Structures are given as C-alpha cells and as structure tokens.
Amino acid sequence: MDKLCVTGNGPLRGAVRVSGAKNAALPILCSSLLVKAPVTFTNVPQLNDTRTIVRLLNQMGVTAARTETHRIEIDASTLAKPVAEYDLVKTMRASVLVLGPLVARWGEARVSLPGGCAIGQRPVDQHLKGLEAMGAEVTLDGGYINARAPGGRLKGARIVMDMVTVTGTENIMMAATLADGVTVIENAAREPEVVDLANCLIAMGANIKGAGTDSITITGVEDLHTATYRVMPDRIEAGTFACAVAAVGGEITLLDAPVASMEAILDKLRDAGCSISINGTSITIARKGPLKAVSVKTAPYPAFPTDMQAQLMAMNVVAEGTAVMTENIFENRMMHVSELSRLGANIEVTGNTAVVQGVASLKGANVMATDLRASASLVIAGLCASGTTMIDRIYHLDRGYEHIEDKLIGLGATIERIST
Ligand code: EPU
Questions:
Q1: Is any atom of ligand 1 closer than 6 Å to the C-beta of 120?
Q2: Pocket test residue of 23, 125, 145, 401 for ligand 1, highest count of atoms within 8 A of CB
Q3: Which residues are CB-contacts of 68 (< 8 A; sequence separation ≥ 6)?
Q4: Which end of the chain is more exposed for a tag (fewer CB within 10 A), N or C?
C-alpha cells in the first residue's frame, strides 16, 4: 500500500494546472449510457474513480477506453447486461449514477446498493423516490436495486427532493432526458458539477432548462446523439492547492481554474489574509503576512462546500485565533481531526462542530488517511509541520487527486511516494 512522505520546507511558489473535476467527470461518463452511439469526453482526470467507472461500463459490455491521457471514448451500443455488480459499486458510491441512465435508455437496471461510507450513511432513497415518481418499478433484493420502466420508457413527473442531493439530482436529470413528457426537479442541487452534466446532456440533444437553480425542467426527447464534451476543471482540487498556499505561505497561480464556482472558497481565503487576483481563468493566491483563523458552516452550493472543510481546517490549525467549523452535510466528516491532532493541532469536536485553536507550529508524525478530503488535509498539515509526516492509506487520495505529489513538487514541496 502506497504512503506519502511529506517534509515541511517552507513556502509554495509557481503555477499549477487544475485537472478536470472528478465529481463532474463521474456523472458525465455515466451519461454515455443514454446514447446508443460513440461519445467522447475530454479533460477527464486520471483518477482511480474514473478508472472504476470505465471498468463498471466494461463489465456491462460497453466499449469504453482512455484513448489519450485525458480523453475517454465510450460506445454504449454494445451494452450486454444493465447490471452494476457489488465488487465495483462497493469501492465507489458514485457507481449508482448508472441507475438513471440504464432505466431510461435500456428499460431496466440492476445496481448494487452502495452501502455505508466513512463520512456518513449516505442513503440513496431520493434517487429511488425520483425514479418511482417517473413510473419505475423499484425493488430491493439481495443488496441490489432492481428498477424497471414499464413499457421500456419512464414518464415525466414533478419531483420534490426532501434534501439537496447532488448525485440524486444528477441521476433523475439523466433519467428524465429520455422520459415521455416533462420532468421538474424541485429543491434540485445547484452545484456547478450538476450544471456541467446538464451542459453535456444538452450537447447530446437533451432539453434541459434551469440547471444551476433549484428547479430544473427536463423535457424528454426521443433519442440523444453522439457528442464530444470537455469536463469542467475541479473547484475542489483548486481549492485544496489554495488552502495549501494559505497555510504554508508563498504565492501560486492556479491555471484553468473554474473561477466563477470558487467564490465561497476564495472569500474564506481573503478573510484569512490571502491576496487573490484573477486574470481570466487564472487565480493567483499569495499569503505573505499573518494567517487568520476563519469560521465556516458547510452547506450546499453556492455556500462553502463540505468537500473543502477538511482542507480549510488544516489551514485553520496553523492560523492565529480560533475558528468554529460546522459540518452540515455529512454526519461523520471529522475523522481528520484525530489525525491532525497527532501533528500537534488543537481541535475540540462537539457533535458536528469543531473548534480549532490555532497553534504556532506542527511537528511531523505518522498519520492515516480516512477518506479523500481528510487525506488532502493531512498533506496540507504535513507541508506546514517541521520534520517528516508519513501518510498511510493514500489510496483515498488517489481516488480524487490527479498526481497530487507531482503537482506539489512542481510548487517546491518535498513529497515522496513510497510504494511498499
Ligand atoms: N442523502 C439522503 N438521501 C439520498 C441522497 C442523499 O439522505 O437519497 C443525504 C446524504 O446522506 C447527505 C446529503 O443528503 O447527508 C447530501 O448528499 P448528496 O447526495 O448531495 O451527496 P452525493 O451526491 O452522494 C456528492 C459528491 C460528494 C460531495 C457531496 C456533497 C459526487 C460523486 N460526490 O455526493 O463528493 O461531498 O455531493 O456536496 O458528486 C468528495 O468528492 O470527496 C465527495 C464526497
């Protein structure tokens, strides 16, 4: 199992290109199941999660392959069985994103239930409720979701989501593109990745209005067609590098950044004492003076994202003052706290709130990654610590960050991957 050895050695400097967004790429790759023709996606990050989706599609008989570093070509016309097996779904919950497209295009699907997750229970009841409202017959047996569209076609419906769910909105939006009639998703997720998926579906011929608002209207069409679509850049990867330079100091430029979608993150970094300048799709972040602790409450977009909570906490750990950080999306997304404490952080957790009292310095130690964003927070803290921090279980990191150590080395960090 690979480990990362991080040695703190001062400010970060230079430029780094932001990769394609994991959480846009995953639904977009699944959208290929709606089309009985070849589709091409570019700017697809090389991650374990995007590899898992390709394997999942291959298992169904779909022709899917990475033809260039960031290009994936998929032809779902070869689909043999609309089944997502447990062995892959258990490694990546986002596999459930094949459910909507399979039922909509192929009339049926059998998809393993994703099961529990380190950061929370994460049920998929809203995905199933939406499909049922569209006329799907849904049953659960042996740990699998079985869904069938009577007559082979779903029907448009008005669906009010009980809570804002990103992949729930995406699953229903994809399913609705080929349904008979009009579907309206109320209380829809407004995340930029939902908008990117909608733009991809529109490029394939879908009729979607309102993506990016909390009410999305989809008018079903007979068929979708072939398209080439470029995945948006990753606001969370960009935000992670931004938190790193805020914590460690220095000046970096993020190239090809999704500037418009990063407002909440950049506002927090300005409050922390960073200077931020934007030039087209480049963002330069500099932190030369003292770093101030910033409080935050996570919430659905456009508020501060849960996927940045751990990284901002790593920054707060070495800031002046006290930050109160409240996690409102997932019930167990504070597992990085005990690992950050091993490096010398002063954090108290009560329920879903962490009170972070900034410390003057951290000291390297052995730590363990518990989930994707927790791993990123440990990398940031390791960069701030004196001596060496050895991060175990970085397979979590490899699910969602493309070549993170190479990118950080390019910014002057000392990081080594140790394969055992
Ligand atoms: N929820 C339900 N029922 C449902 C769906 C969601 O109760 O049917 C609850 C969840 O348990 C959670 C809340 O609603 O408490 C929001 O969850 P959501 O469905 O929005 O999360 P998701 O779609 O499973 C996506 C991202 C996550 C990100 C969340 C929140 C993808 C592939 N994953 O997950 O990304 O944290 O939205 O923004 O898009 C990550 O990249 O590290 C990551 C975990």
A1: yes
A2: 23
A3: none
A4: C
Residues facing 13 on adjacent strands: 251
Quick: pLDDT tens for 324-381.
Answer: 999 999 998 999 999 999 999 999 999 999 999 999 999 999 999 999 999 999 999 9
**pLDDT tens readout for residues 368-386:** 999 999 999 999 999 999 9
Alpha carbon distance 118, 292 (integer Å):
30
Is residue 217 within 6 Å of ligand 1 at its C-beta? Answer: no
Minimal-distance CA residue to ligand 1 atom 2: 123
CA separation for the pair 335, 325 (Å, rounded): 14
Q: 333 with 120: CB under 8 angstroms?
A: yes
Residues classed as catalytic: 117
Q: What is the DSSP letter of 259?
A: G
Q: How far apart are CA 296 and CA 312, in angstroms?
A: 9
Is the CB of 123 within 6 Å of ligand 1? yes
401 CB under 6 A from ligand 1? Answer: no
- Residue entry with tokens 């097996």: 85
Cβ atoms 207, 195 nearer than 8 A: no
Q: Closest Cα to residue 315, out of 390, 387, 383?
A: 383
